[in-house]
Amino acid sequence: MADLILNKSRLQQGNALCEKSKIKEALEFYRKAYELRRDLTQSEHHPDIPVYLANIGSCYYQLEEGENAIEYYRRSLRVEDEMVIDNEEGYLKTLRNLALALRDEDKYEDAIDFGERCASRRMELLGIHTDTARTYYLLGLFYYERNHRGDMRSAEENFNEALKIEEQLWKQGKPHSVDWENLKRRIQMVLARTEQKMKYPAYKRRFDNAERKSTQEPKETVILSDDDPEVDSSDDFVDEVKVEQMEESNLKSKCHDSNSSDSDEGDTRSVVSKYNCISSLALFKGQGDKFNKPKTARKENLHS
Q1: Do 179 and 162 contact (CB within 8 A), yes or no?
Q2: Is the model's pTM score more than 0.85?
Q3: Dihedrals φ, ψ of 273, to 5°?
Q4: Is the CA virtual torsion 100, 102, 107, 112 positive or negative?
Q5: What's the half-sphere exposure (Cβ side, CA atoms, 13 Å) at 135?
Q6: Shortest CA distance to 130 belongs to which of 90, 82, 169, 77?
Q7: DSSP code of 213?
Q8: Alpha-carbon distance 198 to 180, whole Å?
Q9: What pLDDT is recorded for position 213?
Q10: So what's the pLDDT on residue 158?
């Protein structure tokens, strides 16, 4: 019993340190909690183990040790697969984190593979939900950046899937995801790069309808977070000069800068934040986009 209390205490201390951005100290507590649980059970097949492994991975991500983050995210998923744990949302968050860590290491094919698995399962689990929209937006961004030249067709397809979900959210009287403004901007950039300016008026009408009060059912007040990135939402289609400026900004944002914000110069929140460190598998259940994520230093951060 004393060992179990100590183990819980270490996990709680790790969570508290994450909240204070003391990542190295948090990593040590998560390691000790993991080792103690493993030694007590003489196995990694315990529901707490994937939580500890995922939290360790998140700490490594914050410390910009991408390969270590990838290793622990994979281990967490493997244990959950072996145990068939009923923790779908926690599993999907780890999938998304792994996809982002792979993307940060320029392993786009693997990132896309895990991103597609996450998108498919989130649609099955959550349906029309901000987390589902964000996952499709993330996939679109992966394709946009792929091989440094991008796969614009696939990028547009996934951005369009995200847009469809955002449209349904608005009709249901629910808030847009935090990626809404970035989604509109990225679609413009795709159209500019593929010389499809003629398609923009149709997209613009969809953007406008998804922001018009008269098209929304009166269920929930739409409130954007105060720290949402500011994006130019002018009616004018982005021209080639603007695209070049955006691309230059994107390249700068992909550098590991300790002063960068948790929105990748605009592209959404960091998944691996202090709120990503969890105390139990059940904590992720049903939370969706409940938390406002804090600012964190990563390149093009997109964690949820």
Answers
A1: yes
A2: no
A3: -125, -175
A4: negative
A5: 32
A6: 169
A7: G
A8: 22
A9: 77
A10: 98
For residues 78 and 10, give the distance between their C-alpha atoms in angstroms, rounded to a whole number.
Answer: 24
Residue 37: in which H helix or E strand, if any? helix 23-41
**Cα distance between residue 108 and residue 91, in whole Å:** 20
Q: Which of 266, 270, 201 has its CA nearest to residue 236?
A: 201
Query: From CA 189, how far away is CA 267, in angstroms rounded?
Result: 13
Is 172 in a helix, a strand, or coil?
coil
Q: Would you state the structure tokens that stand for residue 19, as one six-digit string?
A: 């909240």
In whole angstroms, what is the distance from residue 228 CA to residue 286 CA? 23
The beta-strand segments (E) located in the chain are: none
Amino acid at 121: R
Q: Cα(55)–Cα(49) distance, rounded to whole angstroms?
A: 10
Comparing CA positions, the residue from 257, 282, 276 lying closest to residue 21 is 276
Side chain identity at residue 287, one-letter code: Q
Query: Nearest to residue 125, comparing CAs of 98, 163, 87?
Result: 87
Q: How many Cβ atoms sit within 10 Å of the Cβ of residue 230?
A: 9
CA dist 71 and 84 (Å) reads 20
Task: Check: CB of residue 72 under 8 Å from CB of residue 47.
Answer: no
**C-beta atoms surrounding 21 within 10 Å:** 14
> What pLDDT was estimated at residue 244?
53
Instruction: Give the type of residue at 208.
Output: D
Structure tokens at 136: 């499709």
Structure tokens at 303: 């964690």
Sign of CA dihedral 229, 234, 235, 241: negative
C-alpha gyration radius of the chain: 20
CA–CA gap between residue 34 and residue 174 (Å, rounded)? 39
Residues of the chain under the 70 pLDDT cut: 1-21, 86, 214-304
Neighbours of 246 (CB within 10 A): 19
